[in-house]
Amino acid sequence: MKVKFLDLQKINQLYADSLKKEVNDVIDSGWFLNGGCNKKFEENLSNYIGVKHVIPVANGLDALRLIIRSYKELGFFKEGDELIVPANTYIASILAITDNGLIPKFVDPDPQTFNIDISKIESSITERTKGILVVHLYGRVCWSKTLESLAEKYNLKIIEDNAQAIGAEWNSIKSGNLGDAAGFSFYPGKNLGALGDSGAVVTNDDSLAKVVRAIANYGSYEKYINEFQGLNSRMDEVQAAFLSIKLFGLENDNRKRNVIAKKYIESIHNSKIVLPEYPNELEHVWHLFVIRSKNREDLVQYLKEKSIETLIHYPIPPHKQQCYNQYSNLNLPITIELSNEVLSIPISPVLTDEEVDFVIDTLNAW
User: Fold this and answer.
1) Which pTM does this prediction carry?
2) Edge-to-edge strand list for the sheet holding 82-86
3) Does an H or E element contain 292, and which?
4) Which residue of 186, 207, 213, 289 is surrounded by the most CB atoms within 10 Å?
5) Which residue positions in the chain have pLDDT lower than 50?
C-alpha cells in the first residue's frame, strides 16, 4: 500500500463537476477579475468567519504584507517598529514583516502546542513594539485572555496568520476574527485550497479594509487615480468561484481530519514517537499532523521504505535561513529542537480507514 502525504487530485475530484461548470460560467461571462465571483466569495467567507470585511488577494504572503503596509499608511506602524512573531513558523510570516521595513522580534514556541509561547511575549516587548503577529500553526488556534490583555496593556495590534487554521475556533469565535486583522492563504494544499495561489485579508476595521483594498489594486480607490504606491494583488474569478464551492465542504472536511487525528493519538503507541496534544476539537483543524522523534532521519527512511509519504514542517527555522543571517545567533532552543525533530505524517479528508490503520500499524512497528 502507498499512502500519499496529500492527494490533491482525489480531494478536488470530489468537486470536479461543479468546478468545471464554474470555469465555463466564468469564460462565458467574459469577466475575469473583480467580478461577481469575487463578490460572492467575499460574502460567503464573511458569513463563515463572522467578519465584516473580506478582501480577496493574490496569495497568503500578500495578505500579511498588505495588512502591515496598510497599518503603516494609517500611521499605526512605521519603519523600524517591532512585531512580535513566533520563531517556529513558515518564512512567509517573517517576510511580511521585513518587506515593510519592520523588525521581527522572535519568541520561542510552546513545545506542547507548537504555537508561540504566550507566557514569553511580555518580556520581549520594548518601546518599539507595535504589534503581535500570531500564527495558528498546523491548524491549532493560538489565543488566550492573556494575549488580549497584553495587546490592551501595551496598545498593540494583533495580526493573525491564519494560513493553516481556517475553521478553527476559540470560545465560539472563528480564527481570523480574533485579532485586528488576519491573512488567509488558499494555496492548493490548505484545508480550503484553490487550484492555484490565492489569499484574503479579513478585518472588522473599516479604515484598514479600505486601505488594503486600494493598495492591492495599484494603490487606487478610483481607476487611474493612485493615492498609494500600491501592488497588483488580486484573486481571479476562477479561483474565487472554486473557493466558494469548496467552502461549503470545509466543515465536513475538517471533521474528517479531526477524526483521523484523534485515532492517531489514541492508537499510536511507540515510545520513540512524541504525539501532538489533542485540545478541544474545535480549536484544531489539523492542517498538519506533526509528530516528533529524536531519530527523525531513521523514521523518515523507514516510512519511505513502507511507501508512506512524509514532510518536515519546517527543517530550517526562519532565523537560521541565509536571508536572515543577522538573527542566526538568537537563543531560541525550543525552535531549534523542534526543527530537528518534527515530522508531518499523512492527514486529509480523503484518507481511507485502511490507509489510516496502515500508518498506525507501521509507526507502532518501528
Assistant:
1) 0.97
2) 53-57, 199-203, 181-185, 157-161, 129-135, 82-86, 103-107
3) strand 289-292
4) 186
5) none
